[in-house]
Every structure is written in C-alpha cells, then in structure tokens.
C-alpha cells in the first residue's frame, strides 16, 4: 500500500458525514463561562458604586468623600484611581483632600505619584497665584514627606 493511499484512508475517517455541517457545542458548554463570571466573588477592597454621578454634590461633600477614599487606600492602584477621579472634576481639590492624598502616597510608598499630585495642582489651578497658595498651604507636609516639586527636580524645563 502506497503512502498516499494510507493518507486517503486516514482522511476519509475524519471527514464529517454531512455535506456542510457546523460543529455544535452542547448548550451547557456555551453558557458555562457566563454563569461562572456571574457567580465569582468580588475581592475589591473599596466600596461599590452603582453608576451614581455626583452632579448635585456640594464642594464640602466632594471633599469629605475623597478624604475618606484616600484614607482607605491600600495600594498604588487605588491611590492612582482615586487621584484620577478626583482631578477629573472641573475644580481644584481642597487642601484637606490633597493632604489625604499625599499621606496615602506615603503610606503605600509611591514617591512618583506624590510628585504628580503637585503637577495635577499646577494643571488644575486657574492662576499662578492660586498654585502658589496651594504650595504655601501644603509646604510643611511636603517638606515633612520629602516630596520635591517638578520645578525643583528639573529646573531647566521651566
């Protein structure tokens, strides 16, 4: 028997019996990943939010909410996510919120994010005077934590 005839016999046994027949999976296999994803436990350490936009929130409520968020930070991801959420609003966060954010950065030992907090303040402040007021208010904490400004790190880029 030639090798080609052996190949023909082997391929005939594998071919489907119908003309064009799509492979069908049992129904349980198709639905299993969806059911498994729904029944998984949540391991998040932060509070769950349900699509609630805080449109009617006052500045004081905003500050209290983010202070609590930063006080509960346990890792770098949570810190950066909360900073992104905080700076996404069309306002400059209060000094108390920024203090909590800087303390959280120190707690999770994230030096670059602490420097970036001050860059965020500079970007969100409307005027240079407002930025200087924030720097004056946070000066003692900044020196205590040893966080330099970007202007101090790269003086030639000004």
Question: Can you give keywords for this protein?
Answer:
mainly alpha; heme; 158 residues; 8 helices; 62% helix; Cytochrome c oxidase subunit 6, mitochondrial; Serine Threonine Protein Phosphatase 5, Tetratricopeptide repeat; Cyt_c_oxidase_su5A/6_sf; elongated
Order of helices and strands: HHHHHHHH
Going by CATH, the homologous superfamily of the domain at 57-146 would be: Cytochrome c oxidase, subunit Va/VI
User: What fold name goes in the CATH topology slot of the domain at 57-146?
Assistant: Serine Threonine Protein Phosphatase 5, Tetratricopeptide repeat
Task: Look at the helices and sheets and give the structural class.
Answer: mainly alpha
Unreliable parts: 29-44
How many beta-strand segments?
0
Report the mean per-residue pLDDT as an integer: 79
According to CATH, what is the class of the domain at 57-146?
Mainly Alpha
Compute the separation of the termini in Å.
83 Å
Taken as a percent bin, the fraction of beta residues is under 5%
* Count of runs of 4 or more consecutive helical residues: 8
Identify the CATH architecture of the domain at 57-146. Alpha Horseshoe
The geometry reads as elongated
Tell me the helix content: 55-70%
How is the main sheet built? none
Cα Rg = 29 Å
GO cellular component, one term: respiratory chain complex IV
Subunit structure: Component of the cytochrome c oxidase (complex IV, CIV), a multisubunit enzyme composed of a catalytic core of 3 subunits and several supernumerary subunits.
Protein name: Cytochrome c oxidase subunit 6, mitochondrial
Main location: mitochondrion
């Amino acid at each position: 028997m030639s090798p080609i005839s052996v190949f023909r016999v082997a391929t005939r046994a594998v071919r489907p019996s119908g003309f064009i027949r799509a492979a069908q999976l049992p129904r349980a296999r198709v639905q299993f990943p969806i059911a498994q994803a729904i029944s998984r436990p949540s391991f998040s350490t932060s509070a769950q939010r349900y699509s609630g936009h805080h449109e009617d929130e006052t500045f004081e409520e905003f500050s209290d909410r983010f202070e609590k968020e930063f006080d509960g930070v346990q890792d770098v991801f949570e810190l950066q996510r909360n900073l992104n959420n905080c700076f996404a609003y069309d306002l400059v966060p209060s000094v108390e919120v920024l203090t909590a954010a800087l303390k959280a950065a120190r707690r999770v030992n994230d030096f670059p994010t602490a420097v970036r907090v001050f860059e965020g303040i500079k970007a969100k402040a409307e005027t240079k005077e407002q930025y200087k007021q924030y720097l004056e208010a946070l000066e003692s904490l900044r020196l205590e934590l040893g966080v330099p400004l970007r202007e101090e790190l790269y003086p030639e880029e000004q």
